[in-house]
Amino acid sequence: QESHERNGLPINCVVFMDEAGLPEESHESLKVLHYFLDQPQVAFVAITNRILDAAKTNRAISLFRPITGEDDLRTLAYGCMCRDYENPPAHLRTSMNRLSQFCSAYIEVIQDSRFSSFFGLRDF
After folding, report:
1. Helix and strand tally (H, E) in the chain?
2. Quick one: which of 7, 24, 42, 69 has the most CB atoms within 10 Å?
3. Model confidence, pTM
4. Which letter, b or e, does each residue of 21-36 get, where b requires 16 or more Cβ atoms within 10 Å of its Cβ?
């Protein structure tokens, strides 16, 4: 970030940490993050399927995603395929039918207690 600022480049750096909850599960400490969260010089985004400890959540904004229904998943998937998903072009209709089946299967997996703590919405 500093080198971008020195060179007059209008670029903002972001540190992206996926699965931020895993070190907590392994009893590894993420305390090193506290200083950087208190004295931010670059943006920091942490994604996790688990709630982090209070020391981290008090230093950040938390966004919780509600459980998504099958219709919402279908709307999201169809919207990624084409703009007018209610009247898709002929060449996409088969793919959209498969997407519908995929959405149903995903909901079944999420509702299965064996996988409930393993998968999250971002896995969709």
Report:
1. 6, 2
2. 24
3. 0.52
4. beebeeeeebeebeee
